[in-house]
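User: Aquaporin-like protein. Structure?
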Amino acid sequence: MRSGPFDHAASQDLELGTTEALQQHAARSVRAHKPVSQRKLDFERRRPRWLRECLAEAIGVFLYVFPGVAATASFMLNAANPLGVSPFGGLFQVGCAYAVGIAFAIITCAPTSGGHFNPAITLCFAFWQGFPWKKVPYYIFSQVMGAFVAGLVMMGMYWPQIQAITAAFIAQGQPLVGNASPAAILSSFPHPDQTNLGFVVMTEFFVDFFIGLIIWACIDPANPFVNPSTVPLMIGLGYAAMIWGFADITIAANMARDLGTRMVCAIFFGREAFTFMNYSPIAILVNIPATFCATALYELLLRDSLTSIGQGHAVHEDGEEGLQRHFSKSVLTDDEEMRRSQAARRQEISKMG
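Assistant: Predicted structure:
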């Protein structure tokens, strides 16, 4: 049968020619980057490393807290309108805002600071991964300040609407601090019927445990199911999943996010932001032991350091010599187990005989 004009060979030639033409067009249309000047290199070399890292942590927290609290404001202010209609979604919208914000924060700032954005994660990095303990206070301070600035900026942008809803609450004799109140735009507060704080602690603990475990799994270089380009979105979705599932029964999920915005809340709505139902210590502190337990579970039971070494992501503390000793011990242990198994089988056979 005679081949047509679009047989396999001809189509390959056509594709090849089109590809070359497109590459030539792109080369003509795209300008080369401006050469890097020595002045720029000297300026970047003089920048203090600690300052860059602290600013990156603050900016990263800002980048995910700002859209999160803005989405919360949009949801709550529209839900409280006179018609009782909220055209701007609900907890799903808030969860998506935090997820996308976390992804943007990691993409933007993690190359500079490592992308902790959470005091609990910073402490776990110091304990498990060798992050310098002297940097921990600077990182935590920067993270809290990032959330604080995000809360202030959001209040400024929504100030007329927040003033209006605050005036309505005052006119109706309703408290300004509490669940579904103006203060709840910035900080989480328990429902009036959540008087059992032990239950609130349990909810916060397991939510933070879940998020910590997801983060630790995502940043494990030996994990074959996550590559670096998908880590920001996966961590963001882990955070969003907990908002979708448990925000309705009060969660905080990050010490920096809660403490920073709670300070803004106290500025505008009074000290009750920290004293309401004795909840603020739960929101601020439970995240740390919960995240530590999650990372301990991963480090002690799930991590495979030998795979990390084999893939070139880590080295043995004693170098190749230490690795060889480990393999020799493993072989001896396997041989010993085989000998014991063979001896047990011989005993069974002798008993049957």
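Confidence is low (pLDDT under 50) at residues 1-14, 82-86. The CA atoms of residues 69 and 81 lie 18 Å apart.
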